[in-house]
Every structure is written in structure tokens, then in C-alpha cells.
Amino acid sequence: MKKNIIFLMIALAGFMFVGVQSANAQQDYSVEFGWDDGNCNCDDPITKEVRFILYTYPGLVFVDDSGWVTPSANPNTINENGPIRTDCHSDCYIVVAFVKYEDGGGVCCTGSASETCTGQELIDGFSFTNTITMN
After folding, report:
1. How many Å apart are CA 48 and CA 44, to the nearest integer?
2. What is the mean pLDDT of the chain?
3. pLDDT digit string (tens) for 53-73?
4. For residues 53 and 96, is the Cβ–Cβ distance under 8 A?
5. CA dist., res. 12 & res. 46, Å (int)
6. Lower Cβ count inside 10 Å, N or C end of the chain?
7. Which of 39, 31, 30, 28 is nearest to 97 (CA)?
8. CA distance 33 to 64
């Protein structure tokens, strides 16, 4: 009888471990956002960079960071791979997007925005609904 109980406890622990691992499995996902640089006043040449940081929502626990990348277009899509949960049924992430322009004198124009989404929206390809206004 003791052997059966021990075996059952080990089996349940194994199932719990697998369940926790699958809930936070590494997933490919993408974030798209655009910006309006009509208010920028930069000298040529201009270096453009974009980035997003992903947090849990609510709670603001760090999840992932794309790092600064050079955009290929506006709007721009950044593809990442991170521990994305798909078992939430309402917004469970907040995406904070950043845009910066630099010229010979340093950073000359910036903008940022944030929006909430689900994990499934991230995996399907999340697009910001609003355009980032830069100043």
C-alpha cells in the first residue's frame, strides 16, 4: 500500500511539473506598431531604432525584451520567442513600445505607447491599435 501511495505521489508531481512547463512554454510571437514622426526635428543622417518590452498584466512582472532593432518599415513588426501563456481569457500582458531617432547630436526624437493583449494575440501577431506620436 505504501508503495502505491508513493508511486501515485511521484506521478502527480510529474504531471504538475509538465503542466507548469507547458503553461510557460517558449512560443514564437510578434508585435507590430507604427509611429508618426511629423513632430521630429532631426538632422541627417538619422538612425532609427524600435523596441518593445513585455510585462504581465496586471502585476507588471517582466516577461521579455526585444532589445533595440533597426526598423525595416513603418509600421514595423518585431518577431520574438519567449515564455508566452495562452491560458488567459482576458488581457494578461502589457506591451510597451518605444521609438527613437538619433542624429549627430544624440537622441533627437522619441515616442512610446503601451497596450494590453492576450497571449494568443501575441502568438497570432499583435498589432497596436494606435499610432505612436513622436516628439
Report:
1. 11
2. 87
3. 999 999 999 999 999 999 999
4. yes
5. 58
6. N
7. 31
8. 17
